Write the C-alpha cells for this entry.
Amino acid sequence: MTAFTALSCLTCAKAFEHAGANAAGLAILFMLAIVIPVVTTIGIMIFRIARREKAHFDPQFEDSFEA
C-alpha cells in the first residue's frame, strides 16, 4: 500500500488499486491541500473578527438577559 492509498478511504483505495494508477489518491491529496488551508483561513478570520468586535463593543448596545 502506497502513501497515497493510505490517505483515502477503504472504498476508494480498493477501486484504484486494481486500476494500477494513483490518480484517485492524487486527486484526494490535491483536494485536501486546497480545502484545509481555505478552512483554516476562514477560521482565523472569524476568530480575529470576533476578538476585534469584543474589544470595540459599545456597552449601550448590550442586551440584558433579565426578563
